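Data card: per-record layout.
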Amino acid sequence: QVQLVESGGGLVQAGGSLRLSCAASGRTFSYYAMGWFRQAPGKEREFVAGASWGLGRMYADYADSVKGRFTISRDNAKNTVYLQMNSLKPEDTAVYYCAVGSTNYSGRDSSRYDYWGQGTQVTVSS
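The structure for this 126-residue chain is written out next.
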């Protein structure tokens, strides 16, 4: 019964920054895959960023649309995953969801994640 709660969303002007947090309760997700997805109005849910574990380190993966602007990180001691979003664009406007898998790798496929938050709204104005 893992629960994920997102926070940190809001309204920001283009070029601004936000940091999303996703706090987990019920069970720790140390060494589990984690990811961020988003869904804009009228569009399908899409992969944003993900992290996996291997060879003693974390490997991060980013969608091309956010590469160089967003950074995924995690604090296992706090059971929290973060998404730092810089240089925000209007097209980043969406509901952002955090997700955690039950293994060390889940990739970009949303079906491979086991636990999901309820989402937090990010709105970027022109």
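Known properties of this structure: The chain is about 0% helix and 50% strand. Residues 64 and 106 are 18 Å apart (CA to CA).

See the next section for split statistics.
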